[in-house]
Write a structure and sequence with these properties.
This protein has one domain (9-186, 234-289): Rossmann fold (3-Layer(aba) Sandwich), CATH 3.40.50. It is an alpha/beta fold and 324 residues long. β3 and β4 (103-107) form a beta hairpin. The protein is globular, with a radius of gyration of 19 Å. α6 packs antiparallel against α7 (131-146), α9 (187-202) crosses α10 (206-216) and α10 (206-216) packs parallel to α14. The protein is built from 14 helices and nine strands. The protein has helices spanning 21-28, 47-50, 62-65, 69-79, 84-91, 112-124, 131-146, 168-174, 187-202, 206-216, 218-237, 247-252, 254-265, 301-314, and strands spanning 9-15, 34-35, 93-97, 103-107, 156-160, 179-184, 242-246, 276-278, 281-284.
Length: 324
């Protein structure tokens, strides 16, 4: 399927929390041949990439059970954020964060029910279902409805995985023409930024927000630490499939980073790659040039001690749970 003309292959952006995934998605949006949907974690998410993962319980595996249209619908609704599309279409905007803790509202217009009917008809006519064919169908129909005047159709669509998704081997197997980008931000900086943002939005103290987050997502954070070494190793062995971008360089030296990235993707450079956009309109002029959430150095001694203790618990190889 991926070798057929018109097929859309994924660009999967991976990284820890507050590592710049949303920013890179907005920078890629609108470039020739690329479809990027500016949602917090886009509606396809990594659901179509990790569905065959053995550690997911009670899931529908493409290669075993996907034989009916109903199964495809189940996959989209239960393993991605597909249903968010209806919510965003009803409220006519998408809440989005690019610069630190500041939330913005992106105008969003979509005839979601007509779109779903077209997608259902297209999927029903497919000779077989797998990750690649369903990703292509969903991305192509979304693009047709959100960019009806745009031609030719894209060759790649951006998919953003959960913060603990680093199964590059699986991506390479399921999507031979796909690409993956890992944004590397120091875990201490990423975690400090995330907790600081949660504390600001919830009105809680840094320690309260951190305790709540670390307790709930401790296993995910353990995998995040191990993923950095795994990403570097995999990129060294498969540079054509995985590219690592340092977070600070993406934000502070955007143009050379984006020129090199687009050359790797085989996409011509455009000034759009230097500002976050949606449908050709700038959605955040402050998303690059300054790291707005560099809060690590501004933490109090108590907050730094709290964070260092949590990191010491996780960043120990002997205590990490197996993740591959």
């Amino acid at each position: 399927m991926l070798d057929q003309p018109g097929t859309i292959a994924p660009i999967t952006i991976c990284g820890g929390p507050t590592s710049g995934k949303s920013t890179l998605t907005a920078l890629l949006e609108g470039l020739p041949g690329i479809f990027a949907l500016p949602l917090w974690h886009d509606c396809l998410s990594a659901g179509l990439c990790y569905l065959s993962a053995p550690f997911w319980r009670n899931t529908v595996h493409f290669r075993e059970n996907i034989t009916q249209l109903w199964h495809v619908r189940h996959v989209l609704c239960c393993h991605t954020r597909w249903l968010d599309l209806e919510i965003f279409a009803r409220q006519r905007y998408v809440p989005y964060s690019l610069s630190g803790s500041r939330l913005i509202s992106i105008p969003f217009s979509l005839d979601v029910y007509h779109m779903e009917k077209v997608l259902a008809d297209r999927v029903a006519s497919m000779p077989h279902y797998d990750e690649a064919t369903v990703f292509d169908a969903a991305a192509s129909v979304l693009h047709e409805f959100l960019h009806p005047q745009e031609a030719p159709p894209p060759r790649r669509a951006v998919s953003m995985g959960p913060v603990d998704f680093y199964r590059f081997e699986m991506l390479a197997e399921r999507y031979p023409k796909g690409k993956a980008i890992y944004i590397d931000r120091r875990p201490a900086e990423a975690l400090a930024s995330y907790v600081h943002r949660e504390a600001a939005l919830s009105g809680k103290s840094f320690a309260e927000a951190g305790t709540e987050y670390f307790t709930r997502y401790g296993a995910m954070i353990q995998r995040m630490f191990k993923a950095r070494a795994h990403a570097r190793e995999w990129a060294g062995e498969h540079p054509e499939m995985l590219r690592i971008i340092p977070f600070n360089e993406l934000i502070l030296h955007t143009e050379p980073v984006m020129r090199a990235l687009l050359d790797w993707l085989g996409v011509p450079f455009s000034p759009l790659a230097l500002r976050g956009t949606w449908q050709g309109n700038c959605i955040d002029a402050q998303c690059t040039g300054v790291i707005h959430d560099a809060v690590l150095d501004s933490l109090s001694a108590t907050e730094r001690e709290f964070l260092e203790e949590r990191i010491a618990e996780w960043d120990q190889p002997g205590q990490r749970e197996p993740y591959l």
